[in-house]
Amino acid sequence: MAVFNLRAYDDHEQVVFCSDSESGLKAIIAIHSTALGPATGGCRMWEYNSDEGALIDALRLSRGMTYKNAMAGLNMGGGKSVIIGNPRTMKSEELFRAFGRFVDNLKGRYVTAEDVGITPADMAMVHKETNHVLGLEGKSGDPSPVTAYGVYMGMKAAVKHRLGRESLDGVKIAVQGLGHVGQYLCEHLSNEGAKLLVTDINKESIDTVVSKCGAIAIDKDEIYEQDVDVYAPCALGATLNDVTIPKIRAKVIAGAANNQLAEDRHGDELKKRGILYTPDYILNAGGIINVSFEEKYDRDAALRKVDEIYNTLEEVFATAEKQDKTTNVVADELARKRVAEAKKQ
Ligand code: NAD
């Protein structure tokens, strides 16, 4: 495999292949950029089909963290790690401690946290070997309510820009995915008087939101074509694709899910149809902003920083309009600019 030539390699500073035969650990730590500070991003545990698949995932995710942290105005670079293996059957204290030693060897160039397949208890074992861990239990706590607050603020910026409405009162919003973030988001939206149409694959979650927020339940396959103002993807990635985009009737897309555009070109498709896409990594940065305050945790200070998502998005929307570009391209360009400026200093 020609690693340096991979498209996803994209100028990574360092990639560490970690292996520990005693515990069975196989992991990859990808450090995309430390220009703005220690490369910070979660650790994912996943049963990849191939080592190449694991590498590409780590590379893509770590570059994404550079952009997310840069646009959130944090002094943190971008990195991510993946542990290759089945999270249901392959976890052990030895494995996580071995991973922790690899993180520690990087002497703070990479700071890890929880991601898909990893629990707070797993991170506590990593922490036995290294202090370079964020999001530990008893510190900044569950990031989801703060992520949801950021999505709510960012959605307000998008609705104001596209629909000229200051408030979400009476705005019709389709929320897809009522998990940790989706449920908190629905509370913010209904408190402001939004009309909610919601869906999930879990009936209990739907029932909770229907009764708490007066939402209307929609079949999961019919969420795209709803006659709404906003579509909020809060479940999985890649829900904006060739099949779904022609069905979407909303004028604004703003949700918590990571990697909503199946491919960058889908940003062009949305623009052509007059649909305002709110770049996901700007909108869902509340969680990482929250952990960035962990050292001396101050919830109010974290929320004030999350409020800035509104202004950041106003800048992205205005620039996209002025330069006749898609919002996803403008967001990437602004993120790269901040990193390039930091490199010069
Ligand atoms: P979660 O797993 O708690 O919730 C996801 C929900 O989506 C679940 O209720 C699940 O049943 C539902 N779902 C799955 N497939 C679906 C489908 N086809 N149709 C409708 N619903 C479906 O996850 P979460 O923590 O709420 O995160 C939601 C999204 O936001 C994820 O993409 C996550 O990566 C992203 N995100 C979360 C945070 C955070 O702080 N939790 C931060 C940044 C980004």
Automatic annotation (TrEMBL):
Binding-site positions, NAD(+):
G177, L178, G179, H180, V181, G182
Signal peptide range equals none
Q: Where is the active site?
A: K80 (proton donor/acceptor)
Q: Name one GO molecular function term.
A: nucleotide binding
Give the matching PANTHER family: LEUCINE DEHYDROGENASE, VALINE DEHYDROGENASE
InterPro entries named in the record: Aminoacid_DH-like_N_sf, Glu/Leu/Phe/Val/Trp_DH, Glu/Leu/Phe/Val/Trp_DH_C, Glu/Leu/Phe/Val/Trp_DH_dimer, Glu/Leu/Phe/Val_DH_AS, Glu/Phe/Leu/Val/Trp_DH_bac/arc, NAD(P)-bd_dom_sf
Q: Which CDD domains match?
A: NAD_bind_Leu_Phe_Val_DH (cd01075)
| Biological-process GO terms, alphabetical | amino acid metabolic process
Q: Per the record's keyword annotation, is Oxidoreductase included, yes or no?
A: yes
Q: Where is the Glutamate/phenylalanine/leucine/valine/L-tryptophan dehydrogenase C-terminal domain?
A: 141-344
Lineage runs: Bacteria, Pseudomonadati, Pseudomonadota, Gammaproteobacteria, Oceanospirillales
What is the name of this protein?
Answer: Leucine dehydrogenase
Q: Which Pfam families match?
A: ELFV_dehydrog (PF00208), ELFV_dehydrog_N (PF02812)
Identify its protein family: Belongs to the Glu/Leu/Phe/Val dehydrogenases family.
Q: Outline what the protein does.
A: Catalyzes the reversible oxidative deamination of glutamate to alpha-ketoglutarate and ammonia.
- Which of UniProt's keywords are assigned here? NAD, Nucleotide-binding, Oxidoreductase
